[in-house]
Design goal:
Layout lengths: L2 E9 L3 H17 L4 E6 L4 H7 L5 H9 L2 E6 L14 H11 L4 E7 L12 H4 L3 E7 L7 E8 L5 E6 L4 H18 L4 E6 L5 H17 L4 E6 H10 L6 E4 L1 H14 L7 E5 L11 E5 L16 H13 L4 H16 L2 E2 L9 E2 L2 H17 L1
Parallel strand pairs: 1-2, 1-3, 3-12, 5-10, 8-9, 8-10, 13-14
Antiparallel strand pairs: 4-5, 4-11, 6-7, 11-12
Helix pairs in contact: 1-10, 1-12, 6-7, 8-9, 10-11, 11-12
This protein binds 3-isopropylmalic acid and manganese (II) ion (MN).
């Protein structure tokens, strides 16, 4: 069994607290013959800015390039609201995504039965929901040039962001979408979302996704929705979806919406994957919870570690070829919730309120039970 080299980047706010629970779980797995994991840690975001005046150092970038997977906590907070734009905390995350070529961001939205009542939607709308938002992550308006604010000299300024997509970027993300839909064996369906009624990038997106479908994936159903209508459908009847594929900005927004369907942002993991290397068959990858740094509850031991732990589960599945252990983690999370343990974000009547550490311990205890059977 190979040794898995992981780079842990806890970041800011609740990042270090939720990452601590993953470290505990990794130590437990190492001690119980469930793999050999070696971990290194680095700074990213505001904590890196405080130490080095940049959002991520060259040395940490170099380590990210050679790791089997990067586990990322969260970045940002009011403390760094006024740092220069190019070294703001988020710049560290964006650089990791861009430099590692992590174009495919898989954001599953799964509603555990035990949590269906924490959602703001009716139980029947969300109970058993299991969909994926596949977000393009290295293109579009996040990275397009020009990206500027210019002083027009007449008391006015002009801000420009550029939404840009090339054919190859749309092709490769569509392929990931169709392959995911195929492999999931659920509705075997991809819904592509764009705004072709307003945006040229939407026109090209629609055209290229359709071509890839016709050429390579006719066995998968393809649907198109305008992104605004898609947002509406996502809260009206989310179970109509299987895999939603969309661009960087729409994906950012729609995945937050999808997250809330499941009860709490604190529940959702994500995987960001690069191209498969033809020689090594490996792909660069980074795993992070969809939630942010939650500065309002940071340091209180109240954060929900489930999204971070489930992100490690996704690393086991997508990068480390340890699907069995990934399944165990998912089952341990479901069992812990079924017992009635809840962090504050998913609290409901008759359930036991616990902190970050207790939730982490309970999940490990469930892992131990599963390992014994
Ligand atoms: C996310 C976050 C990031 C994004 C921020 C922190 C830059 O909101 O991963 O969804 O906008 O992509
Ligand atoms: Mn976001």
């Amino acid at each position: 069994m190979p040794t898995h080299h992981l780079l842990l980047l806890p970041g800011d706010g609740i990042g270090p607290e939720v990452m601590a629970e993953v470290k505990k779980l990794i130590a437990w797995m190492n001690a119980h013959g469930m793999g050999t994991f070696e971990t290194e840690e680095g700074l990213v975001g505001g904590s890196c800015y405080d130490a080095h005046k940049v959002a991520i150092t060259e040395e940490t970038m170099a380590r990210a390039h050679v790791a089997d997977a990067v586990l990322f906590g969260a970045v940002g907070g009011p403390k760094w609201d006024n740092v220069p734009y190019d070294v703001r905390p988020e710049a560290g995350l964006l650089r990791l995504r861009k430099d590692l070529g992590l174009f495919a961001n898989i954001r599953p939205a799964i509603c555990y039965p035990a949590l269906a009542d924490s959602s703001s939607l009716k139980r029947e709308v969300v109970d058993g929901l299991d969909i994926i938002i596949l977000r393009e992550l290295t293109g579009g308006v996040y990275f397009g040039e020009p990206k500027t604010i210019t002083d027009l000299g007449n008391g006015q300024k002009r801000a420009i962001d550029t939404q840009v997509y090339d054919t190859y970027e749309i092709e490769r993300i569509s392929r990931v979408a169709f392959e995911l839909a195929r492999a999931r064996k659920k509705l075997n369906k991809v819904t592509s979302m764009e705004k072709r009624n307003v945006m040229k990038t939407g026109v090209l997106w629609h055209e290229v996704v359709s071509q890839v479908h016709a050429r390579e994936f006719e066995d998968v159903t393809l649907e198109h929705q305008l992104a605004d209508a898609g947002g509406m459908q996502l809260v009206r009847w989310p179970k109509q979806f299987d895999v939603i594929v969309t661009d960087n900005l729409f994906g950012d927004m729609l995945s937050d919406v999808a997250a809330m369907l499941t009860g709490s942002l604190g529940m959702l993991p994500s995987a960001s994957l690069g191209e498969v290397d033809a020689k090594t068959k490996k792909r660069k990858s980074l795993y992070e919870p969809v939630h942010g740094s939650a500065p309002d509850i940071a340091g209180k031991g109240a954060a929900n570690p489930i999204a971070m732990i489930a992100s490690f589960g996704m690393a086991l599945r997508y990068s480390l070829n340890r699907g069995k252990e990934a399944d165990m983690i998912d089952q341990a999370i479901a069992a812990t919730l079924a017992q009635g343990l809840r962090t504050a974000d998913i609290k409901s009547e008759g359930c036991k309120l616990v902190g970050t550490k207790e939730m982490g311990d309970a999940i490990i205890a469930e892992m131990a039970k599963l390992a014994a059977t």
